Amino acid sequence: MRMSRLFSQTLRDVPGEAGLPSHQLLLKAGLVRPLSAGSYSYLPLARRALTKIEDIIREEMDAIGGQEITMPVVHPASLWQETGRWYQVGPEMARFKDRAERDMVLGMTHEEVIADLVRQEVRSYRQLPCLLYQIQTKYRDEPRARGGLIRVREFTMKDSYSLDADWEGLDAQYRAHYQAYFNIFQRCHLPVISVRSDVGMMGGQMAHEYMYLNPIGEDTLVLCDGCGYAANRQVAAARLPAAEAAPPLPSEPVATPDTPTIEALAELLQVPTACTAKAVFFMAMIAGGEGETDRERFVFAVVRGDSELNETKLANAIGARDLRPAREEEIRTVGAEPGYASPVGLQGDDLLLVVDELIPQSPNLVAGANKPGYHLRNTNYGRDYTASHVADLVLARDGDACAQCGGRLRTSRGVEVGNIFKLGTRYTEALGAVFLDSEGSSKPVIMGSYGIGSGRLLSCVIEEHHDEGGIRFPISVAPYHVSCVALLQRAPEVAAAAEKLYREAWSQGVEMLLDDRDATPGVKFNDADLIGLPLRLTLGARSLRQGGAELKPRDSEESRIVPLDEVVATLRAEVDRLLAASRTRVTTVPYVA
RNA sequence: CGGGGCGUAGCGUAGCCUGGUAGCGCGUCGGCUUUGGGAGCCGAAGGCCCCCGGUUCAAAUCCGGGCGCCCCGACCA
Prior knowledge:
9-stranded mixed sheet, 3 domains, Rossmann fold
């Protein structure tokens, strides 16, 4: 491509809306342009980079047996009604009616369509295992788009779906993805870690997320340097100090004026916060079964005073699809007193009492008395009250002890660039996607689903690889291999030489972006740095006098003069060297369940 | 959906408080000069000052409503 013809224009000033470096550079270097909040047009440079990324993804998917397909973006609502997600998923799914007034959805993921394909195509265990994937547009009506391409409404995703006859097969395909994803990110020069994650609306048994560690990330991760434990904070486990065993003492009320917080209470009574019970209240939407309507229930959750509640864990423990903080009047209707609430003596049919697993092991806790200004000493789980659910509800915090090894946990922020889910039979059972096994009995196909957002991956690569001057594209992702800065002025022979090199380069597979514009050297050098191709070739009167063209890598200050008749061979060798080095980045990563 | 900020030429912005001629820089177009790190001079084009309504002799400016964008939070396969 000749820059005089390139549709993208670089900007001198960055639009004020851009905050993150990657967002600024995507705009400034002319890779993307916004259409509205969270939707972008990808201009030629971005399109080429995305194609490189997608081709890497294709290679790795094909290498584990994937077959590429394309499924529709618009789905009939009936399919989503069959699996129930029509009712479970909130407004992030875009819905509309077609001309016949039929409900339709814009696909935000494709489990339903895959399961529908499976029920049409798969008859026998002989057709399994199978792996299908597509690279295609997804639409999610995000409540808040942000960060340029980090979080958008419309995006391109590689989504793959594994189909198996048995759980061992699912495990094998899951593990294959686990490594293939590392290969993909490594080949894109993006450092990532895998963490255990919540299954969220996907359902299923197990999930990992691939995280690019960076403060711009929207997820908080909990990491242990001691044993390598890594989890999204939504599911992370921590080991809190066990309570000392003690015989249960008789419970007694105690006057505790002005102590609506655990800290004030512990201070007044001179007890550690670990000897208190903390109550938190929610209204939970519990999804109804088929034909049933959803039911809103009051949730009274209890954690030890020295811990914080993890809402994701709570929602999972009770099977809630939505949690919101309860209002004061709702708290009072179950007989509880905000600030002095007690799990002892609650009433109400729709009440769910949920306690953290440390509560039954912690004797003689101070809890509220459901009376303003009073608490109860020596409440004991089992004697004074029992819960409908006992589960780990604790939010892991920086500095807590690792549940696996006791080491010190630390937290870090990360951007989720990929995820893998063991789905099981949730969708195939709902849609009747069954096969006949070797004994002739009918069984639902076992599924996994696996996603990578290519646009988010591109912006993370730029976030990771840039400097004050602009982007520093890794060779594997770069839209072109080399920028040729042709300083045409005062040297007619430069134009001719540049044109000849340009043709030869492309004939040898060297992707050259030729800056043939009528612009000053400063403009051309700055744009070359901004766009950030891995190699820069400068051709001007000065370099010709020195015997050829100047070759300089984007990430180095070292340059050298290459004779004109060796330039293309040198570029070809240099590109091959960089590509080879890029491939050696791929290493096997131990699977951590 | 809560909190905050911002909408003025393609981009960056001044003017708004205290109502009265829309201004600057960059970019764009033409001309001459210049040419290895965002050149100089001369000339030109380009504005529903986000929209609707109100106050006023007069609104970019004040008031009300709406929309859009950004940031923080809630949310997020």
